[in-house]
Amino acid sequence: MSFLILALGILLLILLITLAKLNAFLSFIIVCLFVGLCNGMDVIAISNAVQKGMGDLLGTLIIIIGLGAMLGKLVAESGAAERIAAGLIKFSGKKNLVWALLITAFIIGIPLFYNVGFVLILPLAISIATRYKIPPVYLALPAVSALSVTHGYLPPHPSPTALVQQFHADLGLTMLYGFIVSAPCIILAGPVFAKTLKKYNNRPLESFIAPPKDEASLPGMFISILTAFMPVILISAATLTKMFFNTAGTFGKIATAVGEPAIAMLITVLFAIYTLGIRQGRKMSQIGNSLNDAAKDIAVILFIVGGAGSLKQVLTDTGISNEIAASLQNLHINPLLAAWSISAIIRVAIGSATVAGLTTAGIVAPLIASTGADPNLMVLATGAGSLFFSHVNDSGFWLFKEYFNLSIKQTMKTWSIMETIVSVVGIIAVLLLNYIIH
C-alpha cells in the first residue's frame, strides 16, 4: 500500500506541475496533504510535519544558498566571467577554443546559478563562434555540459547542497568526490560528443550575440578566478585538514573554522564585495542593490527546497520512507543505482533537475542507514539521475533551442543527448568511485 500511495503522490506532483502548470511549492504542499491523509494522518499532524520538514531543511541551507546567490551576482555583474573567458581563450589559441570555453564555464559555473551561467556563457560562445567561423553548437555544447555538471553535482548549487543536508553527507568530501566524477562527464559529454556536431551550422539569432565589453573595466584574471573559486578552496582545505592533520592545533582549528560552509561563503562574499565591487569603482549602494536582487532571484528556489523538505518529513512521519527502504533492501538493489533511477524517472516526467533530486531524497534517504551506502556518493548519484534526458518539459531545452535557432529534432540530438551522457557517465563514475574507496 505504501508504494501505491507514494506512486500516486508522485503522479499527482507531476500532473500539478506539468499539466496544471501549478507553482512547484504549492504542488509539494498539496501532495503532502494527499500522502498524509491517505496514510491516516490528521490535518494538524500534516501541518506540523510540513512546518518541521521545511524548517529543518531551510534552517541550515538558506545562508549557504543565499550567500551563493550573492557571490554569483557579483561575479556576473563585475565582468569576472568575461575576464576568465578572455584570458583562457587568449592562452589557449584558436585550436583549443572548445576546451578554453569549457574550463571557463566550469569555473564560473561553481558560484553562478545555472540560469545565470547559461545566459552569460551562450552569448559569449556565439560571439566567439561568429568571430572564428566555428559551428556555434560545436563550440557551445561542451561549455553547457560543464554548467550542467556543476548544477547537478557541486555545492553551493541548491539541489546538491540540499541533498548533502538530507543525506547527512560531508559538504567538503562531497565536493571533492564531485570534482572527480565531473571530469569524465564533462570530457565525454563535451569535447568528445561535440566532434559529432560540426554539421550543425544553424546561425544563432543576432540578438543573442553579446556586444564586447571594455576590457580595461574588467577585474584582473587572477582575482576573478580566486574569487570564483574561493568557496571551493576554503571548504576543500578544511576537509583535507581533517583527513591529514591534527585539528586540535591552532592551524587545524582555523582551517576547520574558515572551511565551515556558511563561514566560507560569508568570507568569500565579503572578499568579492571588495575585489569585484569597491575595487572596480562601484558604490556600496550599487553593490547593496545587486545583493538584494540576488536574494530575490532565489526566493522561488528556496520555496521549492522547503516544499521538498516538507514532503520528506511527511514520508518519514507516515513510515513510508522506511517501508520503501526495507523493500528495496530486500530486493538487493544497489542504493546508488536506486537513487539514480528514481531521480532519472522523476526528471524525465517533471523536467526540473532540482525538483527531481529533492523529491528523490525523501524517498531514498533511509537507504543510507539500512544499507551503509556512502552518503556523499548518494548525493552524486541522485544528482546524476536528476540530469537525465532533458526534453520539452525542461526550460533549459527551450533556451538552448532558441539561442541556436535549432529545430526540436535537432535540439533532441544535441542538448538532450548531452544531458543523458552527463547523467549516465556520472552514475558509472560514482559506482566506480564507490568500488575504489570502499
From TrEMBL:
Domain of life according to the entry: Bacteria
GO MF annotations, alphabetized: gluconate transmembrane transporter activity
Pfam families: GntP_permease (PF02447)
Cell compartments where the protein resides: Cell membrane
Keywords linked to the UniProt accession: Cell membrane, Membrane, Transmembrane, Transmembrane helix, Transport
Membrane topology of this protein: Multi-pass membrane protein
Family, as annotated: Belongs to the GntP permease family.
Full protein name: Gluconate transporter
Taxon lineage: Bacteria, Pseudomonadati, Bacteroidota, Chitinophagia, Chitinophagales
